[in-house]
Amino acid sequence: MSALEIIGVVTGAVCVLLAAREIIWNWPIGIANNIAFFVVFWQHKLYADATLQIFYLLTAIYGWWKWAHKDHGSVLRVRNTSRRMGLTLLVLLPVVWLAIYEILHRWTDSNVPAGDSLATTLSLGAQFMAGRKLLENWLVWIVVDVVSIALFLYKRLYLTTTLYAVFIVMCAGGYLAWRKAQLQAAKA
To answer: What is the pTM assigned to this prediction?
Structure first.
């Protein structure tokens, strides 16, 4: 356990708590999390997860802007994933998974290319959905957390494993909170 792993765990927990409450400060705290985990994951040869942190950093900037941006005087509201968006993700994500797997398998010394690429691919989809406040992002995150727990246990990142177990509970809470907000907005 390193200081960077501790920083990553703390900022990760705070980020998800704030996101579940739709508090915009989840994005800058997430940036600190991305920097810490980039280093931790790279050191443990989780190259796809490390590279994913760069994507997270960029999407944090986008998400921060999107959540703050006002369209016609209103903020972005929680909504469901459209059928078209869902089908697009179901077609696109397996292609991305295979591409990342091939890169890791052929050009790195990763000993977990399938799991690392799967967690990364699903994270890309979930983060894309979160930036648009699509309710189902929380369900995808739960799957990411389960896959990641297996990876982190294997890599002996026990504190990070614990965080991802807590993330499952936080994601369930986030889903319920966002669903409640969505129903309240529909009544207004």
So the answer is: 0.86
Q: Which structural domain, as residue segments, surrounds residue 160?
A: 3-187
What contacts 59, CB < 8 A, 6 or more positions away?
127, 128, 131
Beta bridge partners of residue 71, listed in sequence order: 74
Question: In angstroms, rounded to a whole number, what is the distance separating the alpha carbons of residues 71 and 149?
Answer: 38
3-state secondary structure labels for all residues of 115-178 = HHHHHHHHHHHHHHHHHCCECCHHHHHHHHHHHHHHHHHHCCCHHHHHHHHHHHHHHHHHHHHH
* Structural domain count of the chain: 1
What percentage of residues in the chain have a pLDDT greater than 70? Answer: 97
pLDDT tens column, 50-93:
999 999 899 888 888 877 876 555 677 899 999 999 999 999 99
Whether the CB-CB separation of 41 and 55 falls below 8 Å is answered with no
Distance CA 2, CA 148 (A): 19
Q: Which amino acid is at 82?
A: S
